[in-house]
Design a protein that fits this description.
Layout (H helix, E strand, L loop, with lengths): L3 E4 L3 E6 L3 E3 L6 H6 L3 E3 L1 H18 L10 E6 L5 H13 L15 E6 L3 H13 L4 E3 L16 E3 L7 H11 L4 E7 L2 H16 L3 E8 L1 H5 L1 H9 L5 E5 L6 H5 L1 H4 L5 E5 L4 H4 L10 E7 L7 H7 L9 H11 L34 H27 L12 H8 L3 E3 L5 E3 L10 E7 L7 E8 L9 E3 L26 E5 L8 E5 L4 E2 L9 E2 L4 E3 L6 E3 L1 E3 L6 H26 L4 H5 L2 H17 L9 H34 L6 H8 L5 H19 L3 E5 L6 E7 L3 H24 L10 H24 L3 H32 L6 H15 L1
Parallel strand pairs: 2-5, 2-6, 6-7, 7-8, 9-10, 9-11, 11-12, 12-13, 25-27
Antiparallel strand pairs: 1-5, 3-4, 13-16, 14-15, 16-17, 17-18, 19-20, 21-22, 23-24, 26-27
Helix pairs in contact: 2-14, 5-6, 14-15, 16-18, 16-24, 18-19, 18-24, 19-20, 19-21, 19-22, 21-22, 22-23, 23-24
């Protein structure tokens, strides 16, 4: 046969590989006419060289096969009913031998390599399975070929695509592509990958924008496919299929895929073949997942040194040489070379035309050849051990015997990678991610830009050099493919009911919550000591805030407290200085001193509310306020009762006179104070005041304040104080018109009226205020009520003592009354 490659050996390995495809090659029209319009597939030429490299390496290895050499025959195969079976029949049974009727083998072939197409492997495998002839398929793993009942002697070298869906989805997540179209072939592999992609995308909330499953017949309808792709709103398209299933689709892909689409593909696409049909620049950018493999040492140097003169029986190499270096060849089987450069090398060819580094298919062929060599080696050792082997040159191993040793064979190839046939035990593959650089136009260079490894921890499986990815010529920015615009910082995603999972609205974060990234599912709440900025993108530390002495309000209140306390002390000094006068004596001198001293402490206790709260100051605030004001109010009550008893006791022998003389009103102060002390003691024993924080009243601040502890105890103490004030007001009001000399009942009435008014106003204002204002309201109420007592009770007396001294005696008072009476008469 003319179209074959051959190397002599004791045991032959047959390769059934499609080496040509139909097409029109405008750049080599003369050669195309000579070869009946068939195009040589350069990629598959490397497969033949990979087979030659592996066999030569094994033949040079003294530890394998022991003087038995391997050879190969490679035949072209066409995709039609007759020619697909013609070459396998001839190479296995001889040109004129009929299967089942010939006892003489027509060939010393012991195994067959088929691929890369699964269709060819399937149809040829049906024939080879009848004779249990070992078949190695080096194309992509096909689950349909794993049926051992249908293909009892077929071994798939390639690993399963168990991680391809996870690998592609990880790439989508890396670029935040959540709106993706799917295009697969209508076969078992396409259906399985489509289902895996849908499950994996659903897990990661990536939506399928459109989905199309095409058969070979559908591929001819490129108008429908064009309509499907170009009308899709998704900018990213995942295409999974093999070269043969989508052959027609590839021919029309220039019209189908327009600018703006990113294509994520699997490694079964033959881009070197597709370049023969159109310029790849029509694609926006293809990202290709191909099985990762370690470079085999020496292969690149082997390819660089290859020449047709070294392999004169390799017609495919001769054809490759002629097309690449413009040589003249003969149409006969004996090829002569007249115009080729003597130092020509395949390394001269551009990488987009012929890659000298080992391809995935060549690597699988390399492993397949070593599998045959390992099985042959074990067979020879076994025959030697049982002494059943005669002259190996005369009696060569049979394919049936080899099949027995291949069934459970697994081994490590020379570069240390494990090879096994059991589909359940096959290792998950790692993937290289390739990007085709087409700038400048026509470069079409495959560049590795990333890797996916299922063996690394989740989240670190994908490694990608994003700066190496070449997008379209028009832009350098990463394309976007989302069904909803991203939510920026400060917003969270809110799913839209009844729509796809990736459809969402952007909702602003609530108060004191932030979103510092894009497309966040939930906003993060700031801690109590932090607050969200106005854009809801960052938590900032709150500034500690309290009613400090240096604050304007605190400074005013502190000055008022000191001024009132000094004023009260001055009034006390005036009373001490004039203690022997009638007006001082007539109003119960001792009670006046007690009231003035208690008012001084009332004013000073307001200072406890200023400054940074501490546990001690929080307790002292309420206890001091309650006890001291109780002393003050009970003193007013005692003064009022004294006035009433003084008027009622004018008649000798009455009980009221006895109460006045015995000093009974003086017991009001300790009794009332003791009750308040008891209430405060219960307060401290059950739920005392403590230091608390308020993070909500003032934006950006955390207010440090005193918590009352038990509100019930607080209002009991305050209510008791109000009860005393009400009693004092009532008694004073009833005694306001008693006709007694130096009667101060009116002044006591006014003082209690002011006191009660202040604290009745305090309650609603206190509850409506927050933070520092609440503290300021309480301090102001203390100062206002104390000032009311001081002013209403002692201002008239000081006026008389300092400005009207002539009235500060009983005689003067009577003269005043007598003059008024004469005036009226």
């Amino acid at each position: 046969m003319k179209h074959r490659a051959h190397m002599d050996g004791d045991v032959m390995i047959t390769g059934i590989i499609p080496m040509y495809t139909l097409g029109i090659d405008h750049s080599n029209s003369h050669a195309s006419r000579q070869e009946e319009n068939k195009l040589l597939i350069f990629k598959n030429c490397q497969c033949v060289l990979g087979l030659a490299f592996a066999i030569e390496e094994i033949n040079k290895n003294p530890d394998l096969l022991h003087n038995l050499t391997l050879g190969f025959d490679v035949y072209d195969v066409h995709f039609n009913a007759w020619t697909m079976f013609k070459n396998p029949f001839i190479c296995l049974f001889g040109k004129y031998k009929i299967p089942n009727y010939s006892c003489v083998r027509g060939s010393s072939s012991i195994a067959v390599l088929t691929g890369p197409s699964g269709i060819a492997s399937d149809q040829i495998g049906t024939l080879l399975g009848l004779y249990r002839f070992p078949q190695f398929t080096f194309g992509p793993f096909d689950h349909a070929l794993s049926d051992h009942n249908k293909f009892p002697a077929l071994y798939q070298i390639a690993p399963k695509d168990t991680s391809i869906a996870a690998a592609m989805v990880s790439l989508l997540l890396h670029f935040s592509w959540s709106w993706v179209g799917l295009l697969t072939t209508q076969d078992d592999n396409g259906a399985r990958i489509l289902a895996e992609l849908e499950v994996e995308m659903a897990k990661n909330r990536i939506c399928v924008a459109s989905e199309l499953v095409i058969s070979t017949q559908d591929a001819y309808n490129h108008i429908a496919v064009n309509h499907y792709i170009n009308l899709s709103s998704a900018s990213v398209l995942i295409i999974y299929g093999d070269n043969n299933s989508l052959m027609i689709f590839m021919i029309f892909i220039e019209q189908i895929i327009t600018h703006g689409k990113v294509c994520i593909m699997n490694s079964q696409w033959d881009f070197t073949l597709k370049r023969r049909y159109f310029m790849l620049g029509s694609l926006h950018v293809p990202l290709i997942f191909t099985h990762h493999h370690v470079d085999v040492s020496g292969f690149t140097d082997f390819v660089k040194a290859v020449k047709p003169s070294k392999y004169p029986e390799d017609i495919f190499l001769a054809r490759l040489w002629f097309l690449s270096f413009n040589c003249s060849d003969s149409v006969s089987d004996c090829v002569t070379w007249d115009n080729c450069a003597h130092d020509a090398s395949l390394d001269w060819l551009p990488g987009n035309s012929f890659d000298v580094s080992m391809s995935v298919d060549s690597y699988n062929i390399y492993n397949g050849v070593y599998a045959v060599a390992q099985a042959l080696h074990e067979m020879i050792l076994h025959q030697t051990a049982v002494q059943t082997t005669g002259n190996r040159k005369g009696e060569l191993p049979s394919s049936t015997q080899l099949h027995t040793f291949l069934k459970n064979n697994q081994f490590y190839n020379p570069i240390g990678n494990q090879v096994m046939w059991d589909k359940q035990r096959k290792l998950e593959p790692e993937y290289d991610i390739l990007n085709i650089w087409n700038f400048p136009e026509g470069l079409e260079l495959e560049v590795k830009v990333g890797k996916f490894s299922p063996y690394t921890p989740h989240g670190n499986q994908l490694s990608l050099s994003e700066d190496m990815v070449q997008w379209s010529i028009e832009t350098t920015e990463t394309p976007q493919s989302v069904c909803s615009e991203s939510c920026g910082p400060g917003f969270r995603k809110s799913p839209q009911e009844g729509k796809a999972a990736c459809s969402f609205d952007c909702t602003p974060c609530s108060e004191n919550e932030i979103a510092n990234g894009t497309d966040m599912e939930q906003c993060v709440k700031c801690t109590d000591h932090q607050y969200a900025n106005t854009h809801r993108t960052q938590c900032l530390l709150r500034v500690a805030s309290f009613l400090a002495f240096r604050d304007p309000v605190g400074m005013v209140l502190a000055c008022m407290a000191l001024c009132f306390s000094m004023l009260t002390a001055a009034v006390l000094g005036v009373f001490v200085k004039h203690q022997h006068t009638a007006i001082v004596k007539a109003n119960n001198q001792a009670l006046s001193y007690i009231l003035l001293i208690s008012l001084i402490f009332c004013f000073l206790c307001s200072l406890l509310f200023l400054g940074q709260p501490k546990t001690a100051t929080c307790i002292l605030q309420q206890i001091t306020f309650g006890v001291i004001f109780t002393v003050a109010v009970s003193t007013v009550l005692a003064k009022t009762v004294t006035v009433v008893l003084a008027f009622k006791a004018t008649s000798p022998g009455r009980r009221m006179r006895w109460l006045l003389v015995s000093g009974a009103p003086n017991f009001i102060i300790p009794i009332c104070t003791l009750i308040q002390v008891t209430l405060c003691g219960l307060w401290l024993g059950t739920s005392p005041p403590f230091v608390d924080t308020d993070a909500h009243s003032e934006h950006g601040h955390i207010i440090i304040l005193c918590n009352k502890g038990s509100l019930t105890a607080f209002y009991c103490a305050l209510g008791y104080l109000g009860f005393l004030a009400l009693c004092s007001f009532t008694v004073a009001f009833l005694a306001r018109n008693l006709p007694d000399t130096f009667n101060e009942a009116k002044f006591l009435t006014f003082s209690m009226l002011v006191f009660c008014s202040v604290w009745l106003t305090f309650l609603p204002v206190y509850h409506s205020a927050k933070g520092k204002v609440m503290v300021a309201v309480e301090v102001f109420s203390i100062l206002a009520s104390g000032a009311g007592l001081l002013g209403c009770i002692f201002a008239p007396k000081c006026y008389t003592l300092l400005l009207m001294p002539n009235r500060n005696s009983l005689h003067g008072f009577r003269d005043k009354r007598h003059s008024k009476r004469n005036k009226h008469t």
